[in-house]
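Title: Prediction job returns without error message
Component: structure pipeline
Severity: low
Priority: P3
Assignee: unassigned

Description:
Job completed but the reporter wants confirmation the result is attached to the right record. Sequence as submitted:
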Amino acid sequence: MESAYEECLFYEIVKVGISVKKQKPMPLVYEDVKLDIGYRIDLLVENKLVVEIKSVEALNDVHLAQILTYMKLSDCKLGLLINFNVKLLKNGIKRVIL
């Protein structure tokens, strides 16, 4: 389900004319070597906002650690962790700041 939510959100962002990249690969740099270990940001908005999409029973520390990693690798200070598996979407949005 997460991929469907990602596509719809991507479409809505593009529709209003905002720059967004989906499934943006993020290599890990270790000792000046880029390692492609499969990190992919769900949505990167205006190269400033990381959006991580979930459809889970409840957000937990692993999800927070994941978005924090993506934010550090992309040098973004702001992130949104969005869980679509809630009755009211506003209850599934967690704003993350570095």
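Comment from assignee: result matches the submitted record. The first strand starts at residue 20 and ends at 25.
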